[in-house]
Structure formats: structure tokens, C-alpha cells
Amino acid sequence: MTRAEPDPIVRATGLTRRFGDVTAIDDVAFELQRDRIYGLLGRNGAGKTTLMHLLTGQDFPTAGELEVFGHAPAENAGVLQQLCFIKESQRYPDDFKVKHVLRSAPWFFENWDAEFAARLVDDFELPMTRRIKKLSRGQLSAVGVIVGLASRAPLTFFDEPYLGLDAVARQTFYDRLLADFAEHPRTIVLSSHLIDEVANLLEHVLVIDRGRMILDEDAEELRESATTLVGPRQKIDAFLGSREVLHRDGIGGLASVTVAGLRPDERAAASAAGLELGPVSLQQLVVHLTRTSEKEFA
Question: Which residues fall within 8 angstroms of residue 163, CB to CB, at 6 or more apart?
Fold first, then answer.
């Protein structure tokens, strides 16, 4: 798929949101480009949902500048009609049935694909005539996922709406998202703490912790920024020297360590020393970053 030249659809500078004495978003700066899949990662309470509320015009920043499609999003119909925001606690009118949600969706999303929505209903085995308030948590999550995918909004946010899905249904969501994104590119932001589960979907990673953006990096470059070494403990210790260790495990005489920034010659030396080299999970990297952030805040 051919990429267009960089063309940010979101620009944030010094973005801050305070609630009384609590700073939920703290001097954040970043951009979102067109037609990419982003991961907005971090622990619960890190500020992910607050940030998405600002981006989707549901809240006003306390300070800083925010542009979405070139304009401030709050109270801007021209911006809001290009957005779709799906969250786990999505609410619908009490008397709505599943079919009512899908029939009303074209009123809000000009790119709505009813045929795609119908296929997704079959995929998730949704009861079209059941009232929303009678749905199970998994079924309610499926409604949100279907709306988010079939909306084909130019900027779509998923704030962990898939948590209610079982493992098979979540994989169906991931598969359908990737397949449809390939045919209909748009900017998608996945907010999740199931980091390893969504890692292969992501092209760019944003990590927020305690309201601060602590990482804004291409996913592939991030994965290549660290290496896991496995081998006899003595050989591992001899190789490590003063290198930065991000994570360490071991049992008996074996050790497994994750180290940052190995040069090609260092990787060759580790292999020559009989150590096994492997990739690092995105979750390990995020855990390390948030622990480092904790120390900086302390």
C-alpha cells in the first residue's frame, strides 16, 4: 500500500488538562499522520481516555494548542463528523435494539458501509432484534467494534471497547480491522493495556504515563531498540558488563535478559559467545518505560 507524504491530521503542543489540583494531561506534544494505525498505550489511569476526550472534542484543554483536521475539535461540526470514538462503556438509548444502532449509524458517519456492518454482525453472531440493555458484555462490545469498523471514519478511536470480547472474538476484530484498513486506509488509534495482543497491529506507538507522553516512536524502530539474550548465567553476566538491562529472568543456571541498543558488532559478539538472540515484546519495553517514569516522578 502506497503511503502519502506526511500530512498530520492531529497536532498537539503543550496540551494540558487539569481537574482541580489533578493534572490528567501534562504538557503533551505529538502528531498523528494520515492512514496509520497508532497504539495509545499505558496503565489504567495514565490519561489515555482524557487525551481521547480532548481529541474528539468532548472536553476542552486547560492549556496548550490542539488541532484536528486543522481546527480545534470542540464544538466544531466539520471536525466532529470526521471522527468516530468507541469506548468500552458506550451508551445507547434504553429502548434501542442492535438493528436500531446500525440503522442510525449513517446519520453520523458519511462513509458508513452497511454491507460491511452486516458481515460483521454475522462474524460476531449478534442478535439484531435484542434490546441493547439485554445484551451481554461481549455482545455490547461487539456492537461498538462493528460501529467503529463500519464507520470508516477518517479518524477512528477505539478506547478498549473489545475488552468484553473473548479471545476468539478479539482475534476476529483484529483480523477484520487489518483487512479493512488495507482496503480503506484511515487513521486508527487503539487504546489498550493488552499490549502484546495488539502489538502486531501497530505502526506507531504512543505511551502515556501519569499524563505525560513518555514515548512517541515508530513501532518497528521500537522493537529493534532492544534485544533478548538467553544463555548460561555466567556467559550472560560476562557479556553484559555495564550494559543497560531492561528486564531479567532466570531459572537454575540459565538467564534471560533484555538489553537496550546493541550494535551489530555487539550482536555478533553475543552470538559468538553462544548466547541466543531474540526479539523483545512491546509489553516488556512499555513496562520498562513506565517503571523508569515512576523513578523520574519520585
Answer: 88, 141, 194
- Of 179, 50, 72, whose CA–CA distance to 120 is shortest? 179
Residue 274 DSSP code: T
Eight-state DSSP code of residue 200: G
- pTM value > 0.90: no
Same domain for 39 and 155, yes or no, is yes
Q: Is 242 exposed, middle or buried (0-12, 13-18, 19+ CB in 10 A)?
A: exposed
Q: Which helix (H) or strand (E) holds 271?
A: helix 264-272
Cα separations (Å) of 209 from 73, 90, 171, 294? 24, 24, 27, 9
- Averaged pLDDT, 267-288: 86
Q: Does the structure show a pLDDT above 70 at 80?
A: yes
Residue found by looking up cell 544463555 in the block: 231
Residue 1 lies in a domain: no
Of the chain, the percentage scoring pLDDT greater than 90 comes to: 69
d(CA 45, CA 52): 13
Instruction: Show the domain range for 61.
Output: 8-222
Average model confidence (pLDDT) for the chain? Answer: 90
Go through 129-168 and write b for each residue having 16 or more CB atoms within 10 A of its CB, e for each that does not. Answer: eeebeebeebbbbbbbbbbbbbbbbbbbbbbbbbebbeee
Q: Do residues 131 and 143 both lie within one domain?
A: yes
* Strand residues in 110-186 grouped as ranges (E): 155-159
DSSP lists the bridge partners of residue 207 as 41, 215
As a whole number of angstroms, the distance between CA 82 and CA 240 comes to 50
Residue with cell 494520515: 34
